[in-house]
Amino acid sequence: MISERLLEMSLVGAEWVLWLLFALSLYSIAVLADRIILYTRTREKITELEPGLTAALAKGDLKAARREVQRDSLVRNVIRAGLDIISTGKRDPGTVEQAMLGALSRERARYEARLTPLGTIGNNAPFIGLFGTVLGIIQAFHQLGKLDASQAAGNQIVMAAIGEALVATGVGIMVAIPAVAAFNWAKSSISARIKHAESMMRGVLASLGSVSEPK
After folding, report:
1. Rounded CA separation 100/110 (Å)
2. pLDDT per position as a tens digit, 165-197
3. 188: exposed, middle or buried (C-beta count within 10 Å: 0-12, 13-18, 19+)?
């Protein structure tokens, strides 16, 4: 009884799976475009930031240091959180560090937004495509079973149906590869930014004794 019901459900074919993969592909493209815009708009330019910030901190010039981190980016927002605390007169390393760590957590969440669905699509799209192929093959053999012996002998029918069903697997792989590549690229970019932020956080903490409040 259950097998008959499942067979009836399976006979809907694989076309809906292809539409699902198409929708997932569009979603992946939208997420990728959104992340590219964010990462490009907030690119770090560490080679420009680090020398200026290091020089300002070495001189104890808080005003100049804050000028270096005015633009929106992960590293700058983290360092600016620490400098803002210092500008209030607080010099406790633990307080300054916690302010920067809090900013780092917020920035990380902002940069990692929508990446989980992207990774899920990349990991599961081939299985969705394979599911569509299985449905297509079930439908093909069901139709073949309805033919008489002479018609069934011409297996071009079932071969054509199976070939059509295999398209779902191919589409699943095509959706998965760009999604996985985009996910890995985004995670790598975030990891690099976090490392730069952690490095500069140490510089800020090390310069606490020499930084003076802006006049």
Report:
1. 15
2. 788 889 999 999 999 999 999 999 999 999 999
3. exposed
